[in-house]
């Protein structure tokens, strides 16, 4: 039994205990709707690019354009938002994201989109997400109001993301068959209102603001991340996993159309299988209470991701491919979410926004680089061989990083 931020007692089971906090419930419900819309737009965007151009390289470029601002902008954004009212900023960013999605819907509806405009809209989306992601993540601690419930809240937040990842792609495939990409984009624009409303309903004291210039606040965060062995190693593992395993998303339209001779519904099915694996991963993490054990979970996630890439690369039997997609989603999910859980637990309160921004930068920035490299590599050697190479690279990294497992675990134990 535990009191939430509004004084109401909660008898919720351990795996969902963070929902006993009123503020987190409002945030969580809005997050579920917003993420579902985001995944619908992502699938529709990749299908639109490939339908209009037939270029696997452009798939990689648009994915890179949407994610690379996270690598470049997010660390500075984390320092900047630590100096402002995060709750008000989050509501403002939801409005700007809705405007981006609505603009894309109108341009697509009137057939005004081309490769250059699609890349430009992807860059705009990435720039907004560079502020949105650390804003969402860094406030979860204040929404639960109890540090002991923070890991569970982060796991539930990831569960919301992966439930959208599981349900969004098949729903997007169905909507694309019945309507159009423009309709999917418009639906996403509406979804941002749910999160904005949820955050508006939250009642929480403003978080302490960092003092000094943005540059000095950024340097303080960077020095902490680089000098702390556990955090530095976790971020390196995060970078390699997303550089390789997460690149599957860029190649899926090619597999759906050319390898399995399918349409948008096939793409939604493959993406949905990865989402199902990711959802199961977050369900597993929501039950975890022993934080040092997450070190083994993170390394296992990288190994499962490598195996999923290798199995999927040259397999043409759809049930096995769906299983491999599930393995990929599971491996990436438990690695990313467990890393976030450890980083936010290890970070001091006054540095959490900056640590989260480095996590977001690495998570999505290296996903962007990996997607670009996968698209360019697939254009030269084919999608199947490109995925095989990605799997081999990740497998070799896992073998190498296993040598530091004991030291990493010992430092996590000493800091938790």
Structural class by sheet pairing and helices: mainly alpha
- The succession of helices and strands, N to C, reads EEHHHHHHHHHHHHHHHH
Write the CATH fold name: Growth Hormone, Chain: A
Mean pLDDT: 84
How would the global form be characterised?
Answer: globular
In the sheet with the most strands, the strands line up as 1-2
Instruction: Specify the number of helices.
Output: 16
Radius of gyration from the CA trace?
A: 20 Å
Helix content class: over 70%
- In the CATH hierarchy, what is the superfamily? MFS general substrate transporter like domains
Strand percent estimate: under 5%
Query: Which CATH first-tier class would you pick?
Result: Mainly Alpha
Describe it for me?
- The chain is mainly alpha-helical and 416 residues long.
- The chain has a single domain, classed as MFS general substrate transporter like domains (Growth Hormone, Chain: A).
- Helix content is 81%, strand content 1%.
- It contains 16 helices and two strands.
- A two-stranded antiparallel ribbon has the order 1-2.
- Strand 1 and strand 2 form a beta hairpin.
- The chain is globular.
- The two termini are 23 Å apart.
- The N terminus is likely disordered.
Write a concise keyword list for the protein shown above.
mainly alpha; Growth Hormone, Chain: A; two-stranded antiparallel sheet; 2 strands; disordered N terminus
Short description:
This protein has helices at 22-53, 56-72, 74-81, 86-109, 115-144, 150-178, 181-201, 214-227, 229-244, 248-259, 264-286, 294-313, 318-346, 352-381, 383-401, 405-415, and strands spanning 2-3, 9-10.
